[in-house]
Amino acid sequence: MLESHGRSELVPNKKELNIMIDYAHSPESLENILAAVKEYTLR
Predict the structure, then answer these.
(1) Residue 19 in contact with residue 13, Cβ under 8 Å?
(2) pTM of the predicted protein model
(3) Is residue 22 part of a domain?
(4) Which domain holds residue 34?
(5) pLDDT averaged over 10-residue windows placed end to end, the chain, 43 residues
(6) For residues 33 and 8, is the Cβ–Cβ distance under 8 A?
């Protein structure tokens, strides 16, 4: 089981994928994290 250190965390993995765990608990939180990680999808 992964230990959580913050609200959102990048997960190290052998395939060098951008995997992030986020604990968004409201629609606004979800919108905020999606906007923040959008830069990862543009690579």
Answers:
(1) yes
(2) 0.54
(3) yes
(4) 8-41
(5) 67 89 86 84 67
(6) yes
Q: What is the pLDDT, as a whole number, of residue 3?
A: 58
Please indicate, yes or no, if residue 37 is contained in any of the structural domains.
yes
Number of domains in the chain: 1
Task: Give a yes or no: residue 1 inside a domain.
Answer: no
Residue 2 resides in a domain:
no
Helices (H), 1-43: 27-41
CB 7 within 8 A of CB 16: no
Neighbour count for residue 15 (Cβ, 10 Å): 5
Host H or E run for residue 19 = none
Say how many residues make up the chain: 43
Q: What confidence score (pLDDT) does residue 18 get?
A: 82
